[in-house]
Amino acid sequence: MKLSRPVRAVALMALFAMAFALAGCQRDAQPQWRLTDVSGHLPDLDFRLTDDNGHAVTGADYKGKVVLMYFGYTHCPDVCPLTLTQLHVVMQRLGAPADDARILFVSVDPARDTPEIMHAYVNAFDKRAVGLIGSERDTEALAKRYRSAFTREPDRGDGAYDVSHSSAIYIFDRDGKARLLATPSAAQDDIVHDLHLLIGLGAKS
Amino acid sequence: MKTRLIVALAGLTLCFGAQANDAASVHATNAWIRVLPGTLPAGGYVDFANDSDHTLKIVDTDSPAYGHAMLHRSSTDGGMGRMEMLKSVDLPAKSTTKFAPGGYHVMLMDAGKPVKAGDTVVVNFHLADGSVLPVNFVARPANANGPKD
Ligand SMILES: [Cu+2]
């Protein structure tokens, strides 16, 4: 179909107007998250635990940082290292802004995970990772707060045992608000994309 | 005529003789261990190519460098990360079975002496016919993604 010149001009103007309106819309709208948006559906970051340097810490100590919280344990040779390695690669890809983010690795095996073991473990993956340990009760309360779960499996016979645990990664903004949920199988590109946006949201101007 | 038959039979026997060793039909590549700090257990990963035209079975594993070695599989089905011990792992005919993070792995425990990144460690895989496939695994840092990166 051939359009006469005036009709073409009008069509072109309409297109420009539409594009302009859309751009205006997007500037006001929420960022286009690629991970699962949980804003308003999960409680703020709040806990009382011991960090891998043996210091008592609370959720408030991480205000100002974007937090990636993950439940696991050090005697986990496969899934936990896979997830922590993935998060390490994500942090590297973020570059300098990664300094405004922290990986909080919360132990679901406080019986075996001491601050010393946790310290060596998290630092083997990323220098911005923090190991957190609490009593059995505090850990359970924290997991429950985020609708996470863990179960100590039966002894393998030699005193060793595994702990099955939720594999989700909980992402909080700089104000400690729960914002996003990622699974270990989430694409690295998507995690990097969303963290860039989230770190940018509360950046000091 | 008779001699020809005998020669043919001898050839068949030879053929069977070569196939009787399951380990000879399996080729292992990209073998690596994710080394964790201290005495923590480590995961071992490797690709097994079964060149034969029938399914082969790994029924056991051990390593001179570790007190215990086990066949394991992890899963994150339903959002729960868990591990199970396996009695055996099937290697389907004419295909490659991968031991990779988040799935099949060798769980290596109680290292005789600390294994460091850069070390090479032998892990033996026992096949159903009793043959053994020794594989050299390269030890890699905790946050490695594979045998080289
Ligand atoms: Cu395992």
CATH topology of the largest domain in chain A, which one?
Answer: Glutaredoxin
Q: Looking across the biggest beta sheet of chain A, what order are the strands in?
A: 1-10-9-4-5-6-2-3
Whole-Å distance between the termini of chain B? Answer: 61 Å
Shape of chain B: globular
Number of domains of chain A: 2
- The CATH architecture designation of chain B is Sandwich
Number of strands of chain B: 10
CATH homologous superfamily label of the largest domain in chain A: Glutaredoxin
Please, what is the average pLDDT of chain A? 87
Protein name (chain B): Copper(I)-binding protein
Keywords (chain B): Signal
Signal peptide (chain B): 1-20
Pfam families (chain B): PCuAC (PF04314)
Describe this protein with a few key phrases.
heterodimer, A: 205 residues, alpha+beta, Glutaredoxin, 2 domains, eight-stranded mixed beta sheet, two-stranded antiparallel sheet, 5 helices, B: 149 residues, mainly beta, Immunoglobulin-like, ten-stranded mixed beta sheet, 12% helix, 50% strand, binds copper (II) ion
Commentary on this structure:
The complex is a heterodimer of chains A (205) and B (149). Chain A is built from five helices and ten strands, in the order αββββαβαβαββββα. By secondary structure, chain A is an alpha+beta fold. Chain A has two domains: 30 residues; 169 residues, Glutaredoxin, CATH 3.40.30. Chain A has an eight-stranded mixed beta sheet with strand order 1-10-9-4-5-6-2-3, sandwiched between helices. A two-stranded antiparallel ribbon of chain A has the order 7-8. Chain A starts with a helix and ends with a helix. The relative contact order of chain A is 0.20. Chain B has one domain: Immunoglobulin-like (Sandwich), CATH 2.60.40. In chain B, strand 9 and strand 10 form a beta hairpin. The longest helix of chain B is centred in the first third of the chain and has 18 residues. In chain B, 34% of the residues are buried. The chains are: A alpha+beta (205), B mainly beta (149). Strand 8 of chain A pairs antiparallel with strand 5 of chain B, so a sheet runs across the interface. Bound molecules: copper (II) ion. Copper (II) ion (CU) binds next to strand 8 of chain B.
